[in-house]
Amino acid sequence: MSDIHSPLGQGKKRNKRGGSRFRAYSWMGPAVVVAGIAGIAGFLARGNGGMFRSPAPPPSQENVAASSVISASKPRSSIERPSGSASGPAIIKVAPDMPASFNGVGINDPSKAGQNLRVAHLPDAELIEVSPVGPLPVRGADGRRPLDVYARAWSGARGARVAIVIGGLGLSQTGTQNAIRQLPEEVTLAFAPQGNSLQRWMQAARQRGHEILMQVPLEPFDYPRVDPGRNTLTVERGSEKNVADLHWALSRVTNYTGVMNYMGARFTADAGSLTPVMREIGRRGLLYLDDGTSARSQADAVAAEQATPFAAADLTLDAAHERGDILKKLDELERIARAKGTAIATGAAFPATVEAIALWANEAKARGIEIVPVSALVRDPERE
């Protein structure tokens, strides 16, 4: 056995003619050389250049999460927490010099989008503005948008693509839990602002890989007999009150890419009422999804005028709550996607809807249909 393979200090015979003393001195020359080299390397590593700087140990998961939320070294922001909250992610108060819009050109690679799932539930500190009603999404100082940062990755291929958006999360604990657990991660989830435990459910959805939206209650034609809920945006209340109500809905949760209407046939038919709301959505770097339930909606034209990223659903999945009917709608969604390349469907987190989508999705993937996040199918002026 060679010396290099022998156990240290074992298996060696003593030299009868003072060989041990010779070996004790014979390695001193190389050792001096090695020590000298190590000393020089240490000096350089401590210098400004750090040419031989040792790699830092890999950060713990907790440190990764914390660094993704807090950038306390930047003088333009300060760390705050919501009142009454002793724990949870910190919120960065953004200085008022943050630009309201970004005129640069963004290069977007859809396969590189998305956050690491270990920290996807934590808001990006640079995309949060503290307001009297709570944290609001905002563009970063470098022009990054929530639409880009919180988007789920997809392949970027040009085959038949469908986006499925399931809303009403947060209204039922059981329904929300089942939707997050059972739906394929490619399905986009939309949260109702009147829901409970929204922060908890948002975190669960993001850690499962879902892209999420925030629903905003808009006035239907038979309002208030049919009431979408608290802080509904209405035609009569005017732009200032409507933007304030929009902010309330936006503040209910974080880490979403955009907004989807909840009801709103009358409101979306009135371009004058819709315009300031659509402008505010685009200004904050969000998309707007029209759920496709109103033929009189002006959302498409208004979004184009305001340069707000926009998409509209092609069909609603669960007007009938039977699994067989929902599967037929999903087959129709597939036919639309094969005919025009893309298609979007909306639905609610009913048990039959969740079950049907979970069953259909695997079969559709085997037939070459790609399920993508809704952000992949928006008309986006800043990417065109």
TrEMBL record:
SUPFAM superfamilies per the record?
Answer: Glycoside hydrolase/deacetylase (SSF88713)
The protein's matches in InterPro entries, at most eight in alphabetical order, are given as: Divergent_DAC, Glyco_hydro/deAcase_b/a-brl
**Biological processes annotated in GO:** carbohydrate metabolic process
Key words of the record: Membrane, Transmembrane, Transmembrane helix
- Annotated region (Disordered), positions in chain: 53-88
Transmembrane parts of this sequence: 24-45
Q: Which Gene3D superfamilies match?
A: Glycoside hydrolase/deacetylase
Report the domain of life of the source organism: Bacteria
Comp. bias (Polar residues): 61-76
Q: What is this protein called?
A: Divergent polysaccharide deacetylase family protein
Task: Identify the species of origin.
Answer: Phyllobacterium leguminum
